[in-house]
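Quick note —
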Amino acid sequence: MHKETVRLSFDVPVDEHIMYKMECVKSRIPIKDFLHNLVLIGMKEYQKSKFNERMTKSIRQAKEGKTRTVSSEELDC
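Predicted structure written out below.
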């Protein structure tokens, strides 16, 4: 039997936990849903950040002349 979900657990400071709970009460959503949404938002931001780092590195290398031409055959792979 294959499990469709797993438990994610980590410790947070008490003040931070209170802040999460207060926001959940104001938003009228379960803390599980609130934190799940925060994780998804964080992942999107993290992916954007990593992409921006790669682009910055690529632009810097191009300015320094550390690039090579890629053939269309290589792109098709």
